Task: structure prediction
Amino acid sequence: RFDPSDEEIDHARAQADKTAEPPRPLWLTLDAGSLPAGAIEELKRIFEDFPGDCEVVLEMHTRSGPRRLRLGDGYRVAARNAGLKAELDRLLVAARPVAVPV
Result:
């Protein structure tokens, strides 16, 4: 019968925390000129609706070059959540830069 003590459970949790790698950031690359009106506010709402432990990085392509925004801890998300991915796709499909073949 498996019946660990509280000490054994605490020890196992501590060991797991030591070996766990931090989650990879959610990285979104967007064309700022193609963003729909109110997209930043909508992104903020979406991030708040799917809280988690992954930081969010926005790479915005602007007329003056790329700009990278690393959002604060208040906007960490559950990056593997299918609902989050669906909401982001719905909002940002028009704002994704198109790769031009060279």
Observations:
- The chain is about 35% helix and 25% strand.
- The helical segments are 6-19, 39-49, 82-92.
- The radius of gyration is 19 Å.
- The CA atoms of residues 52 and 77 lie 4 Å apart.
